[in-house]
TrEMBL record:
This is Ubiquinone biosynthesis protein COQ7. It holds the Pfam family COQ7. Residues 1-54 are annotated as: Disordered. The keyword Repeat does not apply. InterPro entries: Ferritin-like_SF, Ubq_synth_Coq7. GO terms for biological process: ubiquinone biosynthetic process. GO terms for molecular function: 3-demethoxyubiquinol 3-hydroxylase activity; metal ion binding.
Amino acid sequence: MQPGGVHTRSNTDAPRQLRDKVGPIGCTFGSKHDRHASPAVKNPALPEHPSNKLSRHMVRELRSDHAGETGAVYIYKGITAVALWRQDAELLAFAHQHGDTEAEHLRLLQAWLPAYRPSRLLLPWRIAGWLTGALPALFGRQAVYGTIAAVETYVDMHYQQQIEHLQVHGGPEGLLPLLLRCQADEQHHRDEAAALAGTHKPWLLRLWCSVVGSGSSFAVVLARRI
């Protein structure tokens, strides 16, 4: 205790400080600042009226985006749960930073969906997302980083398809900048995770990442329709 009754914390409290910052296992990501957010489009326009006309195709795509970002938030919740249990400060920081970005994506996409029905499978997406984060976290950081790189590789391609559609066919003002921002953030997550995972991955991790990529594709197909 310093003069004046002020308590100090030692460096050994770092995991505890991170835990306090991240919050409980059921926390909601979404701090005001994300140091790794893409500067490409800082403030994409939100729709002034949620009932802005969207093509049937884009309604389905936005439904899949919304479901995907919901799953992404829960991926990082799953990572957080295991990282807290293992007292892994590095993994906690990784999950918190990335989780904040995904929560912001979800908030922005929700602004486009009030007039439309979101996927009816949001509960399964939350469960699947949590497991997709928690299971590899049980095997260590490389498994987590490889998983995130696999997920974001597919998400990048998914956003690119939507961006190209809007560039050709047009769409409501503000939607294209939003998708460009989301894509840039996901690309950053992919590249960071891939670098952390390294090039030498065990065969079991390579197999898991292949399953995760295929699962992401299947989830998008379902979310478009249900």
